[in-house]
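Running low. Any example?
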Amino acid sequence: MAIRRSVVILAGALAASGALAQTPPQAGFSLSFTLGPGWSSNPLDVAGRTKGDGSFGLDLALRHRWNLWEGAGFTLGLTGFSEQFFRETGGGTNRLVGSASFSQSWQGFTFLLNAAARTSTNQQLSAHDTAYQDLTASVSRTWTIQPDLTLTPTIGFGRRFYQDGSEDQYRARFALVLARKWEKWTFRLGGSLGWTLEDKTPILPRINDRSYGAFVSSTYEWERDRDIALRLGYSRTLSSYQPNRTKTFTLAPQVSTTFRF
């Protein structure tokens, strides 16, 4: 569902979630929950015609932010995520992600450096899936078109290291989010372009993946840090390695809440 395919992308989360936010995040601890059902047209992320399936996802994140100086912050986070499919259980996953990030705002731009380590198991918790470390850097800027309309582009670069030594990757991503605020509603329209190059094939041609996606979403925040959202997304991957070529539609209604202390 959408949680797995967007929120866990740590380097891109800034633009996806804060297109209208102009004030710096509050320092201290925060505990956030995101949960809800979902539907994916390609739960196993495979090429060819596939059967869609429903799922239920839960995301739990504990973070602590320190405001260092004007516009700068350092955040440590621990995120647990579970997505359980009803029929295609091979598509389900359980993940644990630890992260450390530094952000700096300057003349309307936000620069983000992030280091993360992720490990995961299958849906049944019976087998380890993958583990890797990420180093990413991104820059974003929010332009106010009208008082209630903003446009936020984000560009990011990263390096991923797999613990089993099977491959390393260079990664790049560009995202664009248009957000409209209306009373307690926020409507977003976004798109992204991605590029991935594997780096452990010195003899064979390196696998080169290109991806693009788009989404529309609406969020109703009835009070601060309490919201319900509906998101429809589409993603497609074009790869030099045939099994990596996929396309997926996702639909996810979600409820989110954040406690700050």
Observations:
- The radius of gyration is 18 Å.
- The chain has a mean pLDDT of 89.
- Helices lie at 2-7, 13-17.
